[in-house]
């Protein structure tokens, strides 16, 4: 499940991405093969951290299982 990471909370991408010009036709982030196509991967500091991405709008996105 993809989530948007805010300071102390997790937000559904539907709340943010539905107004983004880079979102897919259903208003979701362009996620494919474990990569955020409308953003860039952020460096992980250790192997226990979630893999995070930064979208073009500046939000942090993570895939939480």
Describe this protein with a few key phrases.
mainly beta, 5-stranded antiparallel β-sheet, 1 helix, two-stranded antiparallel sheet
Describe the structure.
With 65 residues, the protein is mostly beta strands. It has one domain (2-63). Helices cover 8% and strands 32% of the residues. The protein is built from one helix and seven strands. It has one helix at residues 13-17; strands spanning 2-5, 10-11, 31-32, 35-36, 39-41, 52-55, 60-63. The longest helix has 5 residues, at 13-17.
Write the layout of secondary structure elements.
Blueprint: E1 2-5, E2 10-11, H1 13-17, E3 31-32, E4 35-36, E5 39-41, E6 52-55, E7 60-63
Antiparallel strand pairs: 1-2, 1-7, 3-4, 5-6, 6-7
> Which value, in Å, is the CA radius of gyration?
11 Å
Average pLDDT number: 91
Number of helices: 1
Q: Main sheet: which strands, in order across? A: 2-1-7-6-5
Helical/strand content category:
mainly beta
Work out the number of β strands. 7
How many domains in all? Answer: 1
- How does the major sheet shape up? 5 strands, antiparallel
Distance between termini?
Answer: 6 Å
Helix content: under 10%
């Amino acid at each position: 499940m993809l989530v948007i990471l805010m300071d102390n909370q997790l937000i559904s991408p539907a709340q943010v991405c539905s107004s983004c010009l880079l979102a897919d036709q259903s208003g979701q982030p362009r996620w494919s093969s474990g990569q955020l196509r409308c953003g860039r991967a952020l460096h992980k500091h250790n192997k226990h951290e979630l893999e995070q991405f930064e979208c073009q709008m500046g939000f942090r996105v993570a895939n939480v299982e």
